[in-house]
Structure formats: C-alpha cells, structure tokens
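1st attempt posting a full record on here, be nice pls
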Amino acid sequence: MNKKVLLSVFTALCCNAVSQAQEKGTSDLSVSVGVATSTELSNLFTDVLAEVLTDGGIYARDLKSGSTFGLTYRYAVADRLMVHADVFYQKMSQDIYVGDTKNGHLDYTYLTFGLGADYRYISKSMFQMYSGVAVAYSSESIKSSSSAKAPDGTGFFNYHVTAAGFRVGKTFAFFGEVGFGYKGIASAGLSYQF
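the predicted structure (as tokens):
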C-alpha cells in the first residue's frame, strides 16, 4: 500500500513540475520601470550630429534622463509564445549653448508604442525565463525655456531586444529584464496573469 501512495505522490509532483504557466490563451498585464534606453542614445546621436553640422557653434550639455515607465499587455498565442503591445513614457532635459553662452534649456517627452513577442524557454507555474524582440514608434515633444523657438519634435522607429527576462510568482509576480532598447538596459516591474 505504501508503494502506491508514494507512486501517486511522485506522479503528482512530476506533473506539477512540468506544468506550463504560459498556456495558449493566457493574458498578462504588467507595469515596469527601466533605465538607459535606446531613446537616450538617439538623443545623444542627434546632439553630436548638431554639433558637427554647426562646427561646434551649437551644442548640448548636461543631459538628464529620467527612467522610462511602461504598461504592457501580453497574450499567449501558443504554449510558451506570447505577443505583446506596450506603451512607454520617458522625459529628458538638457542645456543648449551657442558658442560659450548658455542659450536655454530643452525638455523632451517621449511616448513609445511597441509590438513584439516573447518566448518562454522555462515556463513553470512559479518561475519563467524568456527572451524577446519588439519594434516600436517613438513620438517626441520638445519644449524650450528660452525665447528661441523650440525645435519641432519628431518621431522615429525604435526597438527592444530582451536578452533575458524572468518572472517570479504565480498570478501576481515580480519580473526583471536585461536587454537593450526603448524599455532600457535593465527594467523591472509587477505582472498580473489571467
């Protein structure tokens, strides 16, 4: 009799260990905060280009970048494979110089809309690991503190590559990601699966 009980317990534990948390039809809603984004890199590239084109006559200094804040909805189209749509918000500011004279201050606001996919290569009920990619469009708004007219904000295509992400918890969980793109080199947040 003890052998049957032990076999039943062992079978139940094995089934639980291989159960997948990311079954087809699962939804996930998450909020996150990230740092060091590709949007910051784009801003720095624009600054260098402006300085080169004006032969150093106009340049930007003291770039201050805030964290990026995001809201993401994911849906499992297949076991372990999730597609997602997200929106991220980030603010930056910097001083503008003409020659050696400070000419004003610019405030930037970025709103990024992305679409992508994540693959869960470890998908347990309490722990998941994944990688993913996304493409996005970032809208830029610029305000100037000087009497000069602020440059027109533009939009540009953006991206994100999640090299490694993990989620710890069942229905409500903590997650963290490392990668590069509009979500940041490192990001973390809270997730709700239903």
